[in-house]
Write a structure and sequence with these properties.
The protein has one domain. With 295 residues, it is mainly α. The longest helix has 32 residues. A hairpin with a 2-residue loop joins strand 1 and strand 2. Helix 2 packs across helix 3. It is built from eleven helices and four strands.
Length: 295
C-alpha cells in the first residue's frame, strides 16, 4: 500500500522514529521548563546532564555489572544529588541576578563536563546493548515495530504526564509554585523554601539523567551527544512557552512527529524545520503556544 507515493510501512517507520525523538524532546524540555518555570534559571547544562545519564548507564554495566534496569533508577538519583549540590553551592548565588549569569555558569559547566568525558573516553561513541527483556520486534503485518522504541515512548509519556499531574494538580505542586512566586509568604507557613528549590532543581536534572539512560541503547554514548540535542530542546521550550509544563510535553512530541514527517517528504529541511517553526511562533505569539501572555 502506498500513500503520497510512499509505502505505508516507510511512512509509519518515520513516524515511529519521530515519536521516539519526540519522547526525548518532551522529557528534556520538561526538565528545562520545570527549572525555568519554578526557579527562573536557564539551565544550559541540561544536555550535558543527559549525556552523563547515558555514561553512568554505560559505566555501571561495564565496571560494576549493574544492568539497565538498576541504572534506570540509580543514574537519575546520582545525577539529582549532584545537581542539588551544584544548586546549593553555586547556582543559588545567582538567583537575584540577570538570567545571563545562570546561563553562562551552566554553559561553562557543560564545556567542563564534555571536556572531562572526552579526555577519558575520546570523541567516538561507546556501544550500549538493548536490555534482553526488550529485544525483538512486534510484527504488525505491514511493519516491524522494535520493542525498545515502544518502551521508550510509553515510559517517557508516563513520566512526563505524572510529573505534570504532580506539579499542576497536587498540594506539593501548589507549594512549589507559590514558593517561587512569593517565598516570604510560604516560609511564614513553616515551609523550607530553599530546600524545596534545591529538590526541584535536583528533580529537573534527574529527568535529563533518566532520558540519558533511555537513550543509551539507541545512540552511541558519546561526550557530545547532549550538545547535538540541547539546541533543539531549547527551541521546543520556546515554542511551547518558557516554563509551561504541559506545553513542553505536547510540543516535544508534536515536533518529533513533524520532524519525522519532514524527513519523509523533504529530507533537506528536517534539520531546520524546528527552528523555522520557532521563528514563526515567536513572530505570532512571543510567549509561546502554551505560555502566559504577559501583554
Amino acid at each position: 500500500m502506498e500513500l503520497f507515493g510512499l509505502s505505508v510501512s516507510a511512512l509509519l517507520s518515520q513516524l515511529m522514529l519521530g515519536l521516539v525523538n519526540g519522547s526525548f524532546y518532551a522529557m528534556l524540555s520538561l526538565g528545562l521548563a520545570i527549572i525555568f518555570g519554578l526557579l527562573n534559571v536557564i539551565n544550559f547544562a541540561h544536555g550535558a546532564v543527559y549525556m552523563l545519564g547515558a555514561f553512568l548507564a554505560f559505566l555501571g554495566l561495564d565496571y560494576l555489572g549493574l544492568n539497565y534496569w538498576v541504572m534506570l533508577l540509580v543514574a537519575p538519583l546520582v545525577i539529582g544529588c549532584v545537581g542539588m549540590l551544584f544548586e546549593r553551592t553555586m547556582l543559588r548565588r545567582l538567583y537575584q541576578l540577570d538570567h545571563l549569569y545562570g546561563l553562562l555558569l551552566t554553559f561553562g559547566l557543560t564545556l567542563m563536563l564534555e571536556g572531562v568525558m572526552r579526555s577519558f573516553f575520546g570523541a567516538s561513541g561507546q556501544r550500549y546493548e538493548v536490555p534482553e527483556a526488550l529485544h525483538g520486534v512486534f510484527n504488525l503485518g505491514f511493519m516491524f515495530l522494535p520493542v525498545y522504541r515502544v518502551w521508550v515512548i510509553l515510559i517517557s509519556l508516563t513520566v512526563c504526564l505524572l510529573t505534570w499531574a504532580v506539579i499542576e494538580k497536587t498540594r506539593l505542586g501548589a507549594l512549589l509554585r507559590a514558593g517561587t512566586e512569593n517565598p516570604q509568604l510560604v516560609e511564614a507557613f513553616g515551609i523550607n523554601v530553599p530546600l524545596m528549590v534545591t529538590l526541584t532543581y535536583g528533580f529537573g536534572v534527574a529527568l535529563a539523567g533518566f532520558a540519558g539512560v533511555l537513550a543509551a541503547p539507541l545512540v552511541q554514548v558519546a561526550p557530545l551527544m547532549g550538545s547535538n540535542l540541547i539546541i533543539v530542546v531549547f527551541a521546543v521550550v520556546v515554542i511551547g512557552g518558557m516554563g509551561s509544563i504541559l506545553g513542553s510535553i505536547i510540543t516535544g512530541m508534536g515536533l518529533g512527529l513533524i520532524e519525522g514527517l519532514t524527513k519523509v517528504f523533504y529530507p533537506q529541511g528536517s534539520a531546520t524545520v524546528v527552528f523555522v517553526l520557532m521563528a514563526l511562533v515567536l513572530l505570532l505569539r512571543p510567549s509561546g503556544l502554551f505560555g502566559k501572555d504577559n501583554g
